[in-house]
Amino acid sequence: MEIFGSTFDDSVFSEARDRVSVSVAPYTAKRCEPEWFCESTALDTDNSLEKQKVFKFRGDLAVRQGKYQTALDAYSSCLEWIADNNLTIRRDVLEGMARCCTKLGLRDRALDFADLLSKEASNTCHLTGLLLLKVSIYQHFGAVGAKMSSLQRLCCLLPFNPWHWYELGQTCLKLLEPDTSPVAGSTQTCGSVGEQKDGETEEHQEDAEDLDEDRIWLKACICFIRTRLLLRILQQQQSSFVLQRSNSALQTAEEALQHLNPKETSLQALIEVMSEDLIPEKMREDYQDGESLASVCMQSFRERWWNKVLLARILETDGRRRQTQRDTI
To answer: Across the strands, what pairs with 292?
Structure first.
């Protein structure tokens, strides 16, 4: 009786064919001097690809040196020489220009470049990069609400990445500091996202309504709970410095939850809501890294988690105001 999978094809045992060696012409690699692209003669060519490389390398070097205006000029020149089908380099240059504008304090131009990138985004990797770019722009200009909105979209796009949840939790925690006013954060948000052209304005307005002290407290709680749940799952597959980083973040999340001090009943209710989708089969099914945006169905943060959290009615018995009341009694 043959055991399934134990038989071999006859071709496995056939003699290997004699291979004929073919001589290959020697290849001499091109040798370049350090920073060859900075020389004036580097542009003495009619090759558009070479000119693109020169301007791109000049821009990259200027960014490294902190010369952001020089880098912006070089990237602008590079953009003129990029072929229409070279979308990878085009996206890289546009992102570089947005980051240079951010460093130079040119908020509107930075958001315009981000808008160009959003129109050309075709897969989840593109969208992830775009959202991370927006987070850095909003953070630089102090637009807390807009930054939170972009982080929430990242959590929806990559729901099993603990680091986006962790950063969102840290942002909420900063808003709860005594010298930070949530109302001021809301005003900054409205002023900084008036230029939005990618359909996010309505989402930002909804998030602005959540810049209430109790709701910020609740959002911080769910973010650190989710971070803790995800890191504990991932730790089983980690080692070395990756595990060290996770352990450090896990400890910070624990300390943050102790500082937020939710009731035990509130904590258990929130854990139940935030762990609903943490099933191995579902996690594999929902993994969307690199997928085409046309095939991705992404629920909003409000639909996927926030509405369920509010339905738990935690704020009726717990929250910052009630904790303050208990402390003063």
So the answer is: 123
Query: Which own/partner pairs from 277-283 qualify as long-range (CB within 8 Å, at least 24 positions apart)?
Result: 277/159, 278/160, 278/229, 278/230, 278/233, 283/160
What secondary structure does DSSP assign to 39-89, as a single string?
SGGGG--S-HHHHHHHHHHHHHHHHHTT-HHHHHHHHHHHHHHS-TT-HHH
Taking CA atoms, 100 is separated from 86, 91, 137, 229, in Å, by: 22, 14, 10, 37
Q: What is the DSSP string of 202-253?
A: HHHHHHHHT-SHHHHHHHHHHHHHHHHHHHHHHGGG--HHHHHHHHHHHHHH
Place of tokens 């509405």: 307
User: What's the DSSP call for residue 304?
Assistant: I
- What sign results for the dihedral spanned by CA atoms 284, 286, 290, 294? positive
| Residue showing tokens 């690699």 | 29
Residue 324 neighbours by CB distance under 10 Å: 11
Residue 158's closest CA among 221, 99, 226?
226
> 323: how many CB neighbours lie within 10 A of its CB?
16
Neighbours of 60 (CB within 10 A): 18
Each residue's pLDDT expressed in tens, for the chain with a length of 329 residues: 444 445 566 665 666 666 677 778 888 887 888 999 999 899 999 999 999 999 999 999 999 999 999 999 999 999 999 999 999 999 999 999 999 999 999 999 999 999 999 999 999 999 999 999 999 999 999 999 999 999 999 999 999 999 999 999 999 999 998 876 554 444 444 333 334 444 455 555 566 667 889 999 999 999 999 999 999 999 988 899 999 999 999 999 999 999 999 999 999 999 999 999 998 777 776 666 667 777 677 789 999 999 999 999 999 888 776 666 556 55
| Phi, psi for residue 133 in degrees, rounded to 5 | -60, -45
